[in-house]
Amino acid sequence: MDNETLRSIKNRRSLRSFEPEQLRDNELETIVNAGLFAPSAVNQQSWHFTVIQNKDIMKRMSEDTKEYLKKSDNPHFLEMVQRADFSIFHNAPSALLVSGDTKAVMPEADCAAAMQNILLAAESLGIGSCWVDTPVHLFNSEKAEQWKRELGIPEGYKPLHAACLGYKSSAPAPEAPIRKENAVNYIR
Ligand SMILES: Cc1cc2nc3c(=O)[nH]c(=O)nc-3n(C[C@H](O)[C@H](O)[C@H](O)COP(=O)(O)O)c2cc1C
Questions:
Q1: Is residue 172 part of a domain?
Q2: 99 — phi, psi (to 5°)?
Q3: Residue 48 confidence (pLDDT)
Q4: Which atom of ligand 1 is nearest to the CA of 112?
Q5: Which residue among 65, 68, 132, 161 has the greatest number of ligand 1 atoms within 8 angstroms of its CB, and so is best to mutate?
Q6: Ligand 1 centroid vs 15 CA: distance in angstroms?
Q7: What pLDDT was estimated at residue 22?
Q8: Which residues constitute the domain of residue 116?
Q9: Pairing state of beta strands 127-131 and 47-52?
Q10: 94-101 and 157-167 beta bridge pairing
Q11: Ligand 1 within 6 A of 112 CB?
């Protein structure tokens, strides 16, 4: 079977190259609004969204995150932070943080559901995105409180997921990764 929703699900790819042009406000609002319609445990809607379009702030977040990850013992992070031109937002013009209410029942799951709605809404409008959780590490650093204040993250909320968004560049989209086999068991 095939329809527009299934095509958006299958065609969405994590893109890491974007046009510099900023997204139109109504497109971005439509995309973020899709996050508000995600399911949530006991309907707590335990999310809060921060849309960031300020280049200076994005650059400083990237630098501070990289500085923090230099202290990590994870070889993936260490390789990444060595690259001077590497931006945690892949140089996209817009970024989005989804923060969860730490007192909610399942904020991780609620915020992940909201994030997936956002990525699919973007794809349905032909807009590129990448789920990037690297920026979330910033909120485990010694600068966490300073950044939460600057970004207006509400008291009691913690950034759990992030994404970057922008118009797709002319670079060819990556192939869909091969799907894991034997991942489904039907019991009838
Ligand atoms: C929880 C989560 C965290 C991720 N973090 C990053 C990230 O920090 N940087 C990045 O470039 N991609 C990140 N990704 C994207 C994955 O690398 C990508 O989804 C995966 O390679 C499959 O490719 P696809 O999204 O095109 O299907 C993340 C994805 C998820 C779900």
A1: no
A2: -105, 145
A3: 98
A4: 1
A5: 132
A6: 9
A7: 98
A8: 11-167
A9: unpaired
A10: antiparallel
A11: no
Return the number of other C-beta atoms located less than 10 Å from residue 172's C-beta.
7
> Looking at the domain assignment, is residue 173 inside a domain?
no
Residue 130 beta carbon below 6 angstroms from any ligand 1 atom: yes
| Domain tally, the chain | 1
pLDDT at 164: 98
- Closest ligand 1 atom to 15 CA: 26
Domain CATH for 116: 3.40.109.10
Low-confidence ranges of the chain (pLDDT < 50): none
Residue type, 50: T
pTM of the predicted model, to two decimals?
A: 0.97
pLDDT at residue 84, as a whole number? 86
Task: Tell me the chain's radius of gyration from C-alpha atoms.
Answer: 17
Largest interatomic CA distance in the chain = 55
For the Cβ of 45 lying below 6 angstroms from any atom of ligand 1, the answer is no
CA 118 to chain centre: 9
Domain membership flag for residue 4: no
Could you tell me if residue 184 is inside a domain? no
Closest residue CA from atom 30 of ligand 1:
131
